[in-house]
Design brief:
By secondary structure, the protein is α/β, with parallel strands linked by helices. The protein has 15 helices and 9 strands. A hairpin with a 3-residue loop joins strand 6 and strand 7.
Length: about 300
């Protein structure tokens, strides 16, 4: 599928994959696709940054290649490595056959037959359905040396393997970089990208998201769930629940045949929306009832 020709088309494409897209987000996605620029998405965990890449890849019919970042990730792990086990087998087989030409054997060992491609190299390869979507997820978990390498790779869309030479992408991939802002990413990398802050959605948008992702939930339950989660985000928590937790909680409530929230139901299912014991303890006793009453009062005045 070709690149959408308008912001509305981008929104329709994402909506078709169950991702409710705001106009500002649709605009920056459209510009990234039209200009061939990487898209840098920053925001709290669970607000849907990774899902944007998944929905875009599915809507465009492109392959999604994901590089999950972590502390200590280096360029070699992100690009390629040699299959040492297969190389050792080839060496043993050559020695067993006798008459080993070491120079010739070395040339044979460092060919694409023994190359294990990692996400960045995979993204530089031609794809049958068009340029892939390269998701570089949670870049803030890595360190500055990897950022510097990534800056070079995204500038020229090529990587170098000493034994094979430079491999350039015939068509640049669609690059989406995400960050949970656990640390600041260097400005040089951000300048290469179009930037968008993905915030928690408004009440109405979160209702739309929940209806798209959990359509079997009744309207009354959906409204109570969203109102409670939005009220919960105003509390002093170690980790505020994201949209992903809202969806997970609604699905848990449906599995329990819950038709309306109660303090008891909330207490039993807190593990679906809060992931730290300190946060869960804050909602023990009468706190859950107080927040539920506040959420219902908000619904009545809306």
């Amino acid at each position: 599928m070709g690149v959408p020709g308008s912001i509305d088309a981008v929104q329709e494409l994402l909506d078709g994959e169950g991702y409710v897209c705001s106009r500002p987000l649709g605009t920056v996605v459209f510009l990234a696709l039209s200009l061939g620029r990487p898209l840098f998405l920053e925001g709290e965990a669970g607000v849907g940054k990774t899902e944007i890449a998944k929905a875009l890849a599915a809507g465009l019919g492109r392959r999604l290649i994901r590089l999950q970042c972590y502390e200590g990730l280096d360029a070699a792990s992100a690009v390629y490595e040699w299959n040492f086990a297969e190389q050792m087998i080839a060496i043993r087989a050559a020695e067993a056959s006798g008459g080993v030409d070491r120079t010739h054997l070395k040339d044979e060992l460092f060919t694409e037959e023994f190359l294990i491609e990692r996400p960045l190299l995979q993204a530089m390869r031609p794809q049958s359905g068009g340029a892939p979507v390269l998701l570089i997820d949670e870049l803030d978990r890595t360190d500055e040396p990897f950022e510097a390498f990534l800056l070079e790779a995204l500038s020229d869309f090529q990587v170098t393997i000493p034994e094979l030479g430079t491999i350039a992408a015939p068509e640049p991939p669609i690059v989406i970089v995400t960050s949970n802002r656990t640390r600041e990413v260097h400005d040089a990398l951000k300048r290469r990208c179009l930037y968008h802050w993905v915030d928690y959605p408004s009440f109405d948008r979160e209702i739309d998201i929940l209806q798209a992702r959990a359509p079997e939930a009744a309207d009354t339950l959906s409204r109570e769930v969203v109102a409670f989660v939005q009220r919960l985000r105003t509390e002093d928590l170690f980790k505020k629940p994201g949209v992903a937790e809202t969806i997970d909680w609604a699905k848990c409530l449906l599995a329990l045949d819950v038709i309306s929230l109660s303090p008891e139901v909330i207490a039993d299912t807190l593990g679906a929306i809060l992931k730290y014991q300190d946060d869960i303890q804050k909602l023990e006793g009468s706190e859950a009832k107080r927040l539920l009453d506040d959420a219902r009062a908000t619904l009545e005045t809306a």
